Amino acid sequence: MRGLHGRTYLVTGAASGIGRGTTARLVEAGANVAMVDLDGERLAAVAASLPDGQVAPVRCDVSDDGEVAAAVAAALDRFGALHGVVTSAGIFDLADFGDLDATDPATFQRVLSVNVTGTFLVLRAALPHLGPGGAVVTVASTAGLRGHGFGAAYTASKGGVVALTRLAALQYGPRGVRVNCVCPGATAGEGMGATFTDPDTAAAVAADLPLRRVGTGADLGSAIAALLSDEMAYVTGQVLAVDGGATAR
Description:
Layout: E1 8-12, H1 17-28, E2 32-37, H2 40-48, E3 55-59, H3 65-79, E4 84-87, H4 105-115, H5 117-126, E5 135-139, H6 143-146, H7 152-172, E6 178-184, E7 187-188, H8 199-206, E8 215-216, H9 217-228, E9 239-242
Parallel strand pairs: 1-2, 1-4, 2-3, 4-5, 5-6, 6-9, 7-8
Helix pairs in contact: 1-9, 3-5, 4-7
């Protein structure tokens, strides 16, 4: 893909799932990646599996303003510039799996603090360092498009990411920075995608998808890398469902 080689990207949630798949795809294309994640041990292990010199692991809680600012500073210090950001850090709290009137306010706030506030804090810290040609990809969910019923906090948080993306695209487009969003459907992997690594669960879900399979971190990573690349230089403010066709119904 044009325009990725030699550039530097900050990827949150980089130690697992979609963030890990995105990091691998960017590195394969010759980009440098500041890998941000709360799980420092797993982060170090993933970084060690990638080409030396192209990645820099940075432990960070994306819901903490100070830690986010420090992570962006570390990326700049290590690579000298920042050309794009991917905000794939996110959580789903099992306590949120139920009807809205049964959702505890503390659970609601905890999920929003990572999924929405975390996205906001990363964009707030990184956007001033992006110049013309810069690109951002946020990660929401098909839950933010259709309210699939799997948690009030998660659904609200992902809808918030979609809206925040559109706002950022309007505000930063005149500065030459593109901002788009991907909405994953069922995606197997570590973390939130762990449930889909079970063959029976994956088969049951896949049977209802037009493409008849669940996605992978690599699938999402390829879509995200494409949006960051110069191949999509005239695309901004868009919300792309990467879901095997689930939202086409």
